[in-house]
Design brief:
By secondary structure, this protein is mainly β. 0% of the residues lie in helices and 51% in strands. The protein has no helices and 11 strands. Strands 2, 4, 5, 6, 9, 10 and 11 form a 7-stranded mixed sheet that branches. Strands 1-3-8-7 form a 4-stranded antiparallel sheet, with no helix packed on it. Strand 4 and strand 5 form a beta hairpin. It is globular, with a radius of gyration of 13 Å.
């Protein structure tokens, strides 16, 4: 079973950028679909981005055009870059692969 650990969250000013990382251990995720979701307490879960096992990518409408998901097979990590952050991006961000979920990384966008 794979363990996923998110990092890179924190407090960011509106208009800033953030790079979240999802480090996997226990299994190589280089050939798996990996998704990033976000969810705030009391709100529904929202798909942020997906990277397929062949490297194809898909983005949720809320981050499309200002987000990049990428895979680093050498470190067994999937990264998510979000630019031009706004207050609506404030959420807990989770990565998942094959029903395994990380613990989440809190992103707060505030001035």
């Amino acid at each position: 079973q794979v363990q996923l650990v998110e990092s890179g969250g924190g407090l960011v000013q509106p208009g800033g950028s953030l790079r979240l990382s999802c480090a996997a251990s226990g299994r190589a995720v280089s050939s798996e679909n990996v998704q990033w979701y976000r969810q705030a307490p009391g709100k529904g879960r929202e798909l942020v981005a997906v990277i397929g096992h062949l490297g194809t990518t898909l983005y949720g409408d809320s981050v499309k055009g200002r987000s990049t998901i990428s895979r680093d097979n050498a470190t067994n990590t999937v990264n998510l870059q979000i630019n031009n952050l706004n207050t609506e991006d404030t959420d807990n961000y989770y990565c998942t692969s094959k029903l395994n979920w990380g613990q989440g990384a809190q992103v707060t966008v505030s001035s």
